[in-house]
Design a protein that fits this description.
CATH topology of the domain at 79-374: TIM Barrel
Number of helices: 17
Number of strands: 17
Largest sheet: 9 strands, mixed
CATH class of the domain at 79-374: Alpha Beta
Bound molecules: zinc ion
CATH superfamily of the domain at 79-374: Metal-dependent hydrolases
Oligomer: single chain
Shape: globular
CATH architecture of the domain at 79-374: Alpha-Beta Barrel
Helix content: 40-55%
Radius of gyration: 22 Å
Length: about 475
């Protein structure tokens, strides 16, 4: 009988045991146990008081909180591997053009496929920035927890801000209605994502923060990502400035750092997650901390797009909450939080030229409880503790690449060598959503050919686009 069936058919509590239990808030427990009941964690420890709970032993495995992926664009999953080895400006411009060629159903298939990949890698919570709204459709069926941030763009005088706001309010009302209809209010919520300083005007940033505050929504903003963005904001030069000039877009160069500029617009007056923050100094880090702005650190995406390495050590030192994000697979190419954890450690150490810059424990914290804090969800998830939601993953530790590290140092095994394919099971709210290649909520056999078909069409468009550009 599968674990999913055993959990489903058990009456009352279920006792889970593994070689290592990682509560995150306290050191790993050897031969530890976690008891779950009614979707929550009721006990964590060693040889817990015998209950009549049914008992499942995962053997040489790590039982840990599910990963919290603080930044993704599930809708772009079908773009994986399409735009390789191009500069940031070309990458984002081509992506924007290709986006117009997909239908809503295409977006839903793409986003759902992305959600499946994340579930298989132990990701139980996703903070997604979406344009079409399809990420919500994906998370409604996949069973994961998440915040779906609706993206907003508007750098030009047209359309007027009131029209942009009215359209956003309609979209958000529709999303909230879907969440309610699916009785998913406990696990899904909506947010607002003013896209970035080069696609959102200063007055629009201010209006969106006021709107988010009035409704109690969180925001997510890309800021300080690329050298092209820094050139525009600090000096008024580079590819974005040239594009503005060609399109007749009004632009007064702020002459300050991207973080300072976005803050000056009033954007950080609502609870905000700043994504990337690669180009920021100590003063920016202190500003973010003073505004209680959390950071989504996406080291693999930043490396692949040649953006740079975020100053994680300075951010943490200033008191900023940092979580880890995969970003979209169009710039990554896999949604694997193990890779993000080790990339975070390696890039911090490379940047500081210091092996103490970030530890494996720091990275594991950022991928779980740090991420939960960054999203304001730490009372519910992010660590194994009595009363929290039973969002868990089981990672097999018997792979050759984890041997013999896992015998005595599970954190090093997970951060430095494990990979998404080592994940055996993923639970959300105490329900098994993924178990060794099998999904309880998703039909992967139907999704795979659908995604291949959309991609074939997109690839033809991309070739046409490339010919036109040549
Ligand atoms: Zn992003």
């Amino acid at each position: 009988m599968s674990v999913a069936d055993r959990v489903r058919h058990s009456e009352g509590a279920v006792r889970l045991r593994a070689k290592w239990v990682l509560p995150i808030e306290s050191p790993p427990i050897e031969n530890g146990e976690v008891v779950i009941e009614d979707g929550r964690i009721t006990q964590v420890g060693k040889q817990l008081t015998p209950t009549n709970a049914s008992h499942i032993d995962f053997g040489l495995s790590a039982l840990m909180p599910g990963f919290v992926n603080v930044h993704a664009h599930l809708e772009y999953t079908v773009m994986r591997g399409l735009l390789e080895d191009v500069a940031f400006f070309t990458w984002i411009r081509t992506l924007t053009t290709l986006k117009t060629r997909l239908s809503f159903d295409d977006w839903v298939a793409s986003a759902t496929f992305g959600a499946a990949e994340m579930l298989a890698g132990g990701i139980t919570t996703v903070a997604d920035a979406c344009d079409a709204g399809a990420s919500l459709s994906a998370l409604l069926v996949s069973g994961q927890r998440g915040i779906v941030f609706r993206e907003v763009f508007g750098i030009d005088r047209e359309p007027p801000i009131e029209n942009i706001l009215a359209a956003l309010k309609r979209k958000i009302a529709d999303m909230e209605e879907q969440i309610e209809r699916h009785h998913a209010e406990e696990r899904l919520s909506v947010g607002v994502s003013p896209h970035a300083p080069y696609t959102v005007s200063a007055p629009l940033f201010g209006e969106l923060a006021a709107y988010a505050n009035s409704k109690g929504y969180r925001q997510c903003v890309h800021v300080g990502e690329s050298p092209a963005e820094v050139a525009l904001i600090e000096r008024g030069t580079g590819a974005f400035a040239e594009m503005y000039a060609a399109r007749g877009i009004d632009w007064t160069t702020p002459g300050v750092s991207p973080v300072r500029y976005v803050s000056d617009t009033g954007a950080f007056d609502a609870p905000t997650l700043a994504v990337h923050v690669v180009h920021a100094d100590k003063t920016d880090a202190e500003l973010l901390a003073s505004k209680n702005v959390a950071v989504a650190h996406c080291p693999k995406s930043n490396g692949k797009l040649g953006a740079g390495f975020a100053p994680v050590k300075a951010l943490l030192k200033a008191g900023v909450t940092v979580g880890l994000g995969t970003d979209s697979v169009a710039s990554n190419n896999s949604a694997d939080m193990f890779e993000e954890m080790r990339s975070a450690v390696f890039t911090a150490r490379a940047r500081e030229q210091n092996p103490d810059a970030l530890t494996a424990r720091d990275a594991l914290y950022m991928a779980t409880l740090g991420g939960a804090k960054a999203l304001g969800l730490d009372a519910q998830i992010g660590s194994l503790r009595h009363g929290k939601r039973a969002d868990l993953c089981v990672v097999r530790l018997d792979g050759l690449h984890l041997t013999p590290t896992a015998d005595d140092n599970p954190v090093a095994a997970l951060v430095y060598a494990a990979r998404a394919s080592d994940v055996a099971l993923t639970f959300v709210d105490g329900r098994v959503l993924y178990e060794t290649g099998t999904y309880t909520m998703l039909d992967i056999a139907r999704l795979r050919p659908a995604v291949a078909q959309i991609r074939a069409r997109l690839f033809r468009e991309w070739q046409k686009e490339a010919k036109r550009g040549a």
